[in-house]
Each structure stands twice: as C-alpha cells, then as structure tokens.
Amino acid sequence: MKPGRSWIFGDDVDTDQMAPGAYMKRSLEELASHCLERLNPDFAKQVQSGDIVVGGRNFGAGSSREQAVQSLLQLGVTTVIAESFAGIFQRNAFNLGLLVLECEERDNIREGDLILPDPKKGMVLNQTTGEQLSCKKVPEFLLQMLEDGGLVPHLEKKLKQGNR
Amino acid sequence: MIRPQNVKDSLPQTLAQKIIARAAGKAEVAVGEIEIGSVDLAMIHDSGGPRRVAPILERLGVEVWDPEKLVVVTDHYVPVFDAESRAILDLARDWVKKQGVARFHDEEGICHVVLPENGYLKPGMFAVGGDSHSPTGGAFGCYMFGIGATEMAGVLATGEIWIRVPETIRIEWEGTFQKGVMAKDVMLFLCGRLGMDGGRYQAVEYCGEAVSELSMQERMTLSNMSAELGAQAGLIAPDATTMKWLEDHGSESDPVEPWQTDPDADFEYHRFDADQLEPQVAAPHSPANAASVSEYNAIRPDVLYLGACTGAKLHDRRAAASILKENRVQSGIEFWVAPSSKRDFHEARKEGVMKILEDAGAKILPTSCGLCAGYGPQRLGQGTVCLSSTARNFKGRMGDESSEVYLASPMTVASTAITGYISDPRNFLGAS
Ligand code: SF4
Fold first, then answer.
1. In the CATH scheme, what is the homologous superfamily, with its name and number, of domain A4-136?
2. Would you list the domain boundaries of chain A?
3. Whole-prediction pTM
4. Which domains are present in chain B?
5. B286–A contact, CB cutoff 8 A
6. A84, A151, B139, B372: which could form a disulfide with B220 (CB 3.0–4.6 Å)?
7. Cis omega before residue B285 (within 30°)?
8. Ligand 1 interacting residues, C-beta cut-off 6 A
9. From residue B165, how far is each of A96, B31, B160, B295 by CA, in Å?
10. pLDDT at residue B432 is higher than 50
C-alpha cells in the first residue's frame, strides 16, 4: 500500500452525506461529485486518488445505500479510518473493496497528514508525525475478500472453483 | 415450521443466538464467532434491488437461489415522476417476471410494512433486507438485518450470509407508558440516551411489561428505529400478541416457547421506567438530539409530515386522528400524510380515520417512501422547518440542506397541527 493524504471528518457522518438522495438515480460520477459536500465543499473537488478519509465515531450511519462506499471509491479513496463504523457501512465497504480500519487513536491524525495503513498488522503509520497508531485487526476472510477486489470477484473465484 | 435445533441440555442462549444457531445448522453459537447462516427470507426494493443486483447476478452467471424466499417491493421511486424513475420501476417489474418471483408487491406500500401485513415474517426466521430499516422484522421475533446491494446479490446467488454472533443488549421497560406516549418516543429517548452508536451493531432486545402491552405496529416502530441506535437487529420475543397478528395475516402460528432469551444467558441489561417517559422531540440533524417535548415549545414548523414506515402505519394514523378529532390544522401550516401501506389506508378509510385527518385539513400524499427518502420531486424547500414522524432528520435528507427537520411521534405531530407550535399531545387527551 502507498501512503495517502488524510481528510478529517467528525462523528456520525451518515450515508446521505456521501450519497445524497437527490442524486441517487444519477450516474455514479455525478453522485460522487456531491460526496460529503455538505460537510466539506472542497472535498469532492480536491480529493486525489489514494487519499484517506478519517472519521470519528459511527462513520457511515444511516441508510444502507452502498453508493456511499462507491462514491468514495469513485473519487479514488481506498481507505477510511475511523474510531468506529456503522455496521452496514462496514460490511458494504469490504464487499466493494474499500478498506475500513477502526482506530481509537485517530485523533492523532490531522488534516493533510500522510498515512500508511497496514491492515494485516492492524496498524497505521502517520508518516507526517512518525507515530504508529494501532487499529482493530480485520478478520482474515475479509482481508481475503478485499484482496480479491470485493465480494463479487471473490464469489466469482469461488464459483469457478465449484465451492460456494 | 421453524424450530431451534436445540431444545434441552444446551448452554443458555439469547434469542439472537438461538435464531443464528438454527440458521447456521448448529445447536448453539458463541458471541463473537463468525457463522454462515442460511437465509429464510430476503427482501429488496426498487432502489437497492433489481437495478443493482441484476447486473451482479448476470456477471456471476447465476439466478436467484430460491425465488420463493425472495420478496420484492416497490416503494422508493413511487409514484413514477420522470423517465429515470419509470426506468427503475420497469426494470424491477421485468426482473421479477424473469426470475419467477411470486411475492412481488408493486406500489402497495413501504417494504417494512408490506412484509408483516402479508404474514411473511415469523418468529425464529433469519432474514435480510436491502434496506437499513430491515430490523423492523425483529418485532416478529425474526432476526432481520439490513445489507447493501452487493451483499444482497451474494445472498441471492448463494442463499447464505456471514454474521458475527452479536452480543445482546436487553432493554426493559417496566410499568406502563402514559397516554400520549408512543413507541416513537421510546426510540427517540433511547437514541438521545445511548447515542446513534449505542447499539454497537449488536442485537438489541426490547422487553418488559410496557413493551408486551404494545400493539404489533407499535413494536414495529421500536424494532425499526433500532437502526438509528446503530444495532444490527432489534428483537422482541414473540408472545400472544405476535401469534394473533400472524393468525390475522394468514400465517400459520409457530410455537412461541423456544424463541425467548434464556434468563441465565449473557446479555447487557438496561432498565427504564415506562411511567416516567415523556413525549420526545429530536432536533436537527440527528435522532440523538432528543429531549422532552416541552424543550421545543417555541418551534413553529412550516410543514408537518406524517409519513414513512416509522410513523404512518394504521396505528400511527389512528393515534394522530385521536388528537385531531374535532380540531383543525392551524392555517398557514402544511400537514401532509403519506400512509405507509394501501391495505392500511383502506382500513383507515373504513374506520373513518382518514376522514378525520382530511376534515382537519391534512393533505393525503401517495403511499410510498415519499419525502422520507428524499428521492422524489417533493422535497422540503430552503429554510423550511418540518416536524416529522419519520426516523431520520439528517441534514438535507428530506430536502434542501438549509431545511430543518424535527422528529416526533404521530401524536405530537397531530397536536402541533392544532396549535401551530410543537406541542405536547397529552394536553389534548382530556380525561378519558
Ligand atoms: S419510509 Fe423512509 S425509512 Fe422507511 S423504508 Fe422508506 S425511505 Fe426508508
């Protein structure tokens, strides 16, 4: 993995913010261009591929719409680090190939810090400050699914192997 | 019939554990373990359903594993309002035909209300829904949780889903709720007290005297808003009230006995006095911003919305009508009612409930998710203040980002209609 620049958000960031209802029947590009705009109008315009979103408690609350995950991926975000995640969002993230890490020490990450996640070890390195922050370990089978690129490619592989 | 695998000689288990154990084909399961469960019922709607799962199933080269276990509902893009929403609904209609899905409920109401009124949800079931309010099924003693469209496609392909056996958080309400206090108030209070992550994606189980006195539709509101508590499921153990509902809705009644939490099982426990609970209001932009209704007496809403799976069921409209009877909506206030199912709507008509609402000045909107989802043409305008019986008041969800949504019970919405200011419904109940 490569280090990513961090964007900081607060507690209870809900999925309506990442995928606003008014654009839900539009293309993913259009939907993503409104991602998190109510919380940070610059985010969707300035976020770069490989950047990392950092949230507080209960990131991804609310609606089960997985376009919330897809719009982050569409913008090039590959990792979200938060103190805790809403359950459905967390499942959706792994299913779609977005790494989410629970990190109680996320207060030690500031806007723009360069962060290198190491999901296998359950660590993230803040390259800007040199600090190692510990995260919750991700279950092995979910990391496997992430490596395969999400649930669909993972199932494809399994179906080919003839074991469901 | 759905029965647990184990009957005797097993470790004490919670209701959640018993249901998951059965789905996993085991006698018992331990909290924290990852299990694979066979799904008894899957529900999808027009938004997260066919248009999203069909391409994935195609890519995998598989069909729905068991069309008899699938229920499809159209409610989010209903009624059609432009070419895009028409295409979404047409796609859903074609797809159910091709897949041979018999249990297709087209524009009949909101998914979480349509499932139980057709008697589909039964105690002991392990079920998933492509919608975050799927925990509503927990009111029937069914372990039902919400998942995204990709994961749903996985379920439709395999009939299975992984689950981490949850801890159980038991919430007991002792005593009796005051008149004018509704299930909605209970959930706003709990969101305020425990926070939107208070459920920690575990299983919440509601119990106690006050809960057992609630009607099924009130129980559904408790389970429904377990989503706002951040729980995976919101269970209520089945009892005579549950069995009566199942009978009345054309479903065989299963034995109730095994689907209870063993008294000596491990669970976290909270206890509250039902008698002490006052009507609640949650201020923008979070259900967790809840406080007693008296804190908000100075707020004068522009729009009152009685809608959604959470707050426009027959019971909710009856409750609103009981307040509005022989009263009128203050002039200058919009009072919109979007009944949550057609069947309920007709019942409310027969009972005269709709007439009371209409005579009072309410405008009846189509039966669908409507304003709650914020997908349609009707949205709250700039700076609009709304008091709503829905579950969520996130910024901009129901309209412009400058709009402000307060959440309350259907009764509080009704009493506010009379005075024009957010008002305590207990003032309108008289001595009766
Ligand atoms: S009424 Fe609202 S909460 Fe219920 S299913 Fe529809 S959008 Fe979701």
1. Aconitase, domain 4 (3.20.19.10)
2. 4-136
3. 0.95
4. 15-258+265-273 (3.30.499.10), 282-426 (3.30.499.10)
5. yes
6. B139
7. yes
8. B 75, 110-112, 131, 133, 308-310, 369, 372-373, 390-391
9. 22, 5, 15, 40
10. no
